[in-house]
Amino acid sequence: MKWRTTLCGCAGVVLLVSIGVRAEDKIPATTLTIYSTTQPGAVDSNLYAQPGQFQMMRQSADYYSDYNSRSRIPGYAVVKQERTMDLPQERCALRFSDVAALIDPTTVSFESLTDPTGTHVLEQNFEFDLVGTQKLMERYLDRPITLEQVLGDKVEIVKGTLLSTSGGVILRGDDGKVQILNGYSRVEFPDLPGGLITKPTLVWDVSTEKPGPHRTRVGYQTEGMTWWADYNLTFAEGKDANSGKLDVGAWVSIINQSGASYPDSRLKLIAGDVHRTPKGEQVPREMAFEARAKGGLDEQTGFEEKAFFEYHLYTLGRSTTLPDNSTKQIELFPTTKDVPCDKVLVYYGLEPQYRGFFPNPMIDRDFGSQCNKKVDIYLRFRNEEKVGLGIPLPSGRIRVNKLDPADQSLEFIGEDVIDHTPKDEEVLIRMGNAFDVVGERKQVDFKVDTNRQWMDETIEVKIRNHKNEPVKVIVKENLYRWVNWEVTECSGKYEKVDSRTIHIPVAVAKDGEETVRYKVHYTW
């Protein structure tokens, strides 16, 4: 029997879970619980745009030793599978090949549901010495092989003993001559060397008191899987410039590049910041797998949410298939219509470099005198039941569109990211900068007495509205020069937000301008 490969490597192997839904209770035999470790909205599209590169990595001979550096998928999954296996005698070897290529072998568990007390695993091995171009070539050093070279329109057959594969293929022909080949189109081997396998395989040395068919449960963790939420919102103007309504819909996006496909599986998603021990530390076996769910799945099509420890668990009400090297999107919850929201305009006149904390009083007159003229736009709504929400919102990217009545098409108007948001909390979405509303900030007076350790600063802020309707703007000011401060004069009513920030609400008429002036006294 001859084995053939090409210059680019062996053909990809698709690893399939060979068992689906259990007939007796309609629970899928495979359950996936996926965890995400990515920051909200921070998933790089390159993670799932080039699956071929990732597949080539898995086929390389050293994929297992360096997958941590090559796999950049920010998440992991717990896989649980139930299937029938035959234990023909009291002690036997079981081979389990339908596992993910990026499995963590230290998390593997095996249990016989037929005889849980009398069946035990004595040894466990994970074999990952996969067939690959380089691996086959290395196994045939000092052995005869046949190569094909394409030279123009001709194909040349080259036979000889393989001496080296470093820096090109070095062959010694039957006549004793040595030649170096820098490329070839095909290579033929007489047979497949022993010890090589086509897919990652778990091997158990099992003892049992009841030989015969056993219903078994296998569980493990694997890298190469993640999920995140994508929120799609449609904004409609309200009765004035500072109000509106939102249609809120949510989808989950799931990446599977684990090296295995999971047909007809039960899907669970964990939302929350789950702590994991750093790489190299042992994961306690009893913490790696949740208890098996009881009862069958209903026929609902969406996710059911529930509190789970200090996190939230979303369980899909039907089975689904996650192919390897794929991105799947599933609706998280149906679109909620007409959620009331506020359009908030905020003028933050300080340049970003002056918005931090400083170790000493800033007594330089010109410090922070530069002006930012942009007015920020936010949409704000509450995640509460009375508006049709009131469910825990996983972290994710939130995109907002607005209907153009001219052609009834949705146009993109901004996006932001949100962190995990419990029910009854506020959601704030930064949309961008206002076009027709601008601000101007300047220092109009400054006095300092270093001997008596005080300084006074007077700031003037102007808001100009070029819209055809009145607007409300929040003037946000940091009292940034020192920690001890007091507002001694203010032309409007201000709110102290925290130890260094005040908000001054301003109403500006259409095509109008409003001026806010305040004086702050610092001591140290």
Explain this structure.
The protein has 524 residues and is mainly β. The chain folds into three domains: 13-123 and 213-331, no CATH class; 141-189, SH3 type barrels, CATH 2.30.30; 335-523, no CATH class. It is 6% helix and 52% strand. It has helices at residues 46-49, 51-59, 63-70, 133-139, 285-288, and strands at 3-5, 30-36, 75-87, 91-96, 103-112, 119-127, 144-151, 154-164, 169-172, 178-181, 186-189, 201-208, 212-223, 225-237, 243-256, 262-271, 303-308, 311-316, 320-322, 326-348, 375-382, 396-404, 409-418, 426-433, 437-449, 454-465, 471-478, 485-490, 495-498, 501-508, 513-523. The strands form five sheets. Strands 14, 15, 20, 21, 22, 23, 24, 27, 29 and 30 form a ten-stranded mixed β-sheet that branches. The model is unreliable at 1-25, 48-70 and 280-299 (pLDDT under 50).
Number of strands: 31
**Uncertain spans:** 1-25, 48-70, 280-299
Instruction: Characterize the biggest β-sheet.
Output: 10 strands, mixed
Helix content: under 10%
Tell me the number of helical segments per DSSP (H or I, 4 or more residues long).
5
What is the domain total for the residues?
3
Query: Judging from the principal axes of the Cα atoms, what is the shape?
Result: elongated
Strand content: over 45%
Span of the ends, CA to CA: 88 Å
Q: What would you call the structural class?
A: mainly beta
Radius of gyration, taken over Cα atoms and rounded to an integer in Å: 32 Å
Average of per-residue pLDDT values: 82
